[in-house]
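To whoever is covering the structure queue this week,

Two jobs came back overnight. Logging them here so there's a record in the thread.

Job A:
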Amino acid sequence: MVEPPSGKRSSVLPVAPSLAQHPFPGEHRASLVTARVLFVSLLAMFVGLLASGVALLLTRLIGLVTNLAFYGRASTAFISPADNKLGLLVIVVPVIGGLIVGVMARWGSAAIRGHGIPEAMEQVLFNESRVAPRLTLLKPLSAAVAIGTGGPFGAEGPIIATGGALGSLLGQVLSVTAHERKALLAAGAAAGMAATFGTPVSAVILAVELLLFEYRASSLIPVALASATAAACRGGALGFAPVFEMPDLSMIAPASLPFYVGLGAVLGVFAVWITRAVYAVEDLFERLPVHWMWWPALGGLAVGTVGYFAPHTLGVGYDNIQHILAGQIVGRALLVLCILKFTSWAIALGSGTSGGTLAPLFTIGGALGGLLGTVATAAFPSFGIDPRMAAVVGMAALFAGASHATLASVVFAYETTHQPATLLPLLGGCAAAYLVSCLLMRTSIMTEKIARRGIRVRNEYAIDDLDQLHVRGHCTTNVTTLRATQSVAEARAWLFSALPGAAHASFPIVDDDGTLLGVVTGASLATADLAGDRPVRDAVREAPIVVHEDVSLREAADLMVLGGVDLLPVVPRSGVRLVLGVLTRSDLLNVARSRLAYGEIAPPTFRLMFAGRRCWRAG
């Protein structure tokens, strides 16, 4: 047993064969953006072009189905089915649409069921962002049938899912990594949303909050360029006017801000209730003694029945959102639309048909916000509360509470209305809705389905502590080494007598001038087929895997995993193979222990209260 001397230099050992195919992890982290990101960004812009074309095509296809089903004419004009003259026959139309979707799901792909975003999340998390190619065709077709026959969904969900499928398909055809394929999938999804609403910024934020599960330049740049490309294409075809035009709103009175924050909190409660209600309906369908292929038809029966009494609940309902935000639907009409739209949408979505959640949530949230804003205006006329502003806040807050995509909700409401006066109340209201929703519900309407399978999905991002700390400050410097020239018998005797229990530890082996030759474990040395008079150097089977003192602990941990070792000798980057220390798994666990001890896990609230009371008394 010796301590390595300092100041000696020797030649550099070759890299261990087991890591020949694995570059040092730090080489990837040293550069956030490489030429590869440029290549992926060009692919993403191409996906953005395709997604904008798909969005236009799907919109026209929905218009065609709507015109054929409700008006008996061949036209691709995007029109509401509310003005149909079918009478009681209107109940049959969504049933037929549900039957067609059920057949497509049964013999095409069951993945077309649902509103798209949870399915895309699942592919990102568990299938290396690989979406089945047939979904690129089946998802928009099934959505066009479901929505065109009166389904109370928005077109944006299927377009987002189809755009993601396009990005994934391109990533499967070309030679890209799983991370790059995820970026392409998210780019396609963001481009689909940007092409539908002309909201490129909120589309990027939504992709970050719901699909990427990270915030990195290598994924953010392609997504942003794809979204910008799709929005530009939409602007060239349809112009850059806001999707939901409304009269200009004045800046809020300071006294009204608490109301908008409180409104957001109330909508957060509604978001939790709506999410649970939708999945409760889905659970009821699961108990039906019929095959799931027939469920969309049963959901269509409910949609048609509600649509007979309230025709404006049929179809995407973008016109309803615009009328709500403009203050053109008020009072009892607004309440009826809110209740019946929710009823129709919840039953249809729970039946497993193909459709989206964004537009229904915006309709319901806008109606609730407008109603509560009207009541508050009458009760507190001096506060300067505007029911139209309340409708905008309600629209965004309900989606923020249901999806947990808070920032995307704020920016989306601004981009679709072009009303800068809404930003402050939107921020307060959506933050309050997110707070209440997180307190009452661990999952969201996007992640509940995945969570029910026993899989935890987190959408919170935090700095990796190991990525912020260097090896030099946390390695063990009091190193126990073995001399290369000492005999195997001497080393074995020391292992089992001088240091009991060390047979499973690892030890660097150095020569007489302190040069690192290799690393052996106590167990391998004890059981090695070596004569006792052989030198310890003969126990070295391969070159050691080492780590430099100036790299992060995350890089070192990755190196341990790649090399399958539990100890890394720490050497200078200059090429000198002198052992400055060793980094073990215990050292990494000590860092995690320190994080837990210094504030990552807070004590319960009641303990904080009593601690504060004791400090007050002591003072």
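Job B:
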Amino acid sequence: MNNKIYILALIALIIGILIPVSIGYIGISKEQRGWSVSPSTITITTTTPTLITTTTSIPITVTKEYFITVTSVEREEKGIVTNVSYSGIIEFLENSKRVIREAQQMMMPRHYFPAPTPRPAPVVTAISLAKEGATYSAIDVSHTNVQVEGIDELDIVKNNDRIVVVSIGSKVYIFDAIERKIVSIINITSTTPLDVRGIYLYNNKLVVVSSSPQIIIQRILLRDSESVKNNVKRDAITTNIHIFDISNVYRPILVKNISVSGSYLDSRLSDRYAYFIISMDIYSGEDNEYIVPIINGEAIDSKNIVPIDNLPTVYTIIVAIDLEDLKYNAMAYMTSYGSRIYMSRNNRLYIASPATTFQELYLNASIKFIEFSLDYLPQNISNIVKEYMRNGNYSKAYEVIVGYISSLDYDKAKSIINNINSKLNEVKYRYVDKTHFYIYTVDGIDISYRGSFTVDGSLLDQFCMEELDKSFFIVATTYTEQTLIYEATKYDIVPPFDRRIEITICSDSNCTTTTIPIESEPRTKTSLISITPIFSPASTANNVYIIDLENLIKVGELLNLAEGERIYAARLVKNIFFLVTFRQVDPLYAIDISDPSNPKVLGYLKIPGFSEYLHPLPGDRLLGIGLEDGALKISLFSVSDPIKMSETSTIKISNTWSPALQDHHAVTVYLGRNITVIPVYMGYGAKQGFIIINYSYNKLGIDQIIDHLNPLRSVYIGSELFTISSTSIKIYNLDSRNLEEEIKLS
């Protein structure tokens, strides 16, 4: 075969393939269906203390039947030249369709017998429940527990020195901490249930993010080379961003509503700018059409669609909003699925994506299988396989080989498979999971793609990645190596003995059953041979990489930390990167990254259990929240000397779980009072509430256990602690430790 063609085809198949099994064959529908959608409004209802209700309807963009024609324009963005017409997007997708089809075909199971016989926009309602009260100012006010100081993260509870805002289900409650009343309720409603994902507070703006299961999807229906035609599709997902002016918290005013097709991934708030990341499938598996994102009922401009990956699977939509003047910008990047995001104070946004899937692994394994099988095929079969390979039709080549081997006697088939496995072992064929990072630069509402890099291993969470001194990026991954062998399995199939058909008819609680006998056929045993690749983890280890952000190259690394274990927690504190791994004992690693080109382990601490969240405390201490033998474990670590770290104090609570193990937003640290508050479910949920943990320099203690069903979050304003559940807000005095009041959420 032509080696050059083979290599090029192999590279094209391997690079960047992320193919969901369900996408089906992809084509462009030439059907010309136009739809029109009834006008939608956002309704603001305000109820005054005298129960006089006024309603204001705000019309939003009406989706209607239309065609969009865009002049083809080329532009260059950070080394990527993109044709920004819709026809250019279609051409790009069509060019990748063949490779996607090949991968799908290769992924199909092969079994052979030895001798075969030839929605409308949501309605947002704000209700005022109390009269206006006095202003309030406190010295100490809590904020959402976030990774990067100054970069806020979406959460279900927010507060300032006057109000506490709580989002539960489809409602958002505004609680006045002085009046001690729910003063406003915002209802996010539609024809189907909506889910409020979380909220932001910025000065006098409240941002509410909701998801809706019913939207209108914009599709590319091929009419001519430049046109997009509108088509209605129900039961998909949209992300809604509602912005309220709460200068008067008793009368919230909706000032902006942005609806974006796709699923909410994550977001960040930096100064006055909010950035939302939304993911939307490029391909429609149902009717094999290409689709494009829509913003407020209109197809996103083609110049705002940027192909990045060779074989993209989703639009990664980044919406940037200026919360002062309410202007916004949206870009749709054609990439692979994102999993985690990170944003720095240096105007960089990172989106992490698993770079290799089991589909790609299957594809690569099949190509190796084809290559090593050629020596065991008859000349006529080998020629057919080579011809398919020359044409890039690997799925057909694979099908021919598996069909031939499966048609042989089982012992002969097994012998060939064993020989192929020996060759795979000789070349040490391995699969290692990888993570791909896309980097975007943001400047206000301007967004641009900066570049990308890939590292070995998979990412645990956002704390495993962080910027270092503006110029470098550190990332920790758990690296899993898998070996590959093929297995030939023989199945003996015997026709069933019971060949009757029973028909049961029931009416008015009376049932009759009729049995129809089927004439028996000779019960001859048939054998089925199945050939499948088997992947098994050979080893795990953990790696730390440091990336030069100017050139996007790796400048430092630590490989094979804690072999056989995996990462459970990470945290960067100044120039020390702390890493927790676990299998049998809990190594807390302290890694010096002051020299990015030469990271080194300063020390490690082995203790029982593991921490799933690390929080830095003053005085060179770390608070760890994790598990040990089924018990919730709170640890206090002294890390003043990273070479000789120690666990100075622990609290273990048996049969207890906390949301803080999975969501760092559930942790409240009040530095001014040396306490930490976390929600807990004790005794398998028999006792629920919040535990207040006090800490000194080297000691932990339990200050108080607060009963509160369905605990979610806690916040503080001055000397008052507000514990929040799905049904109520409780107010505790932190000086007296007494419950002052409970306010129900209706």
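Note for Job B: Confidence is low (pLDDT under 50) at residues 1-83, 111-119, 133-138, 220-227.

Please reply-all if you pick these up so we don't duplicate work.
Q.
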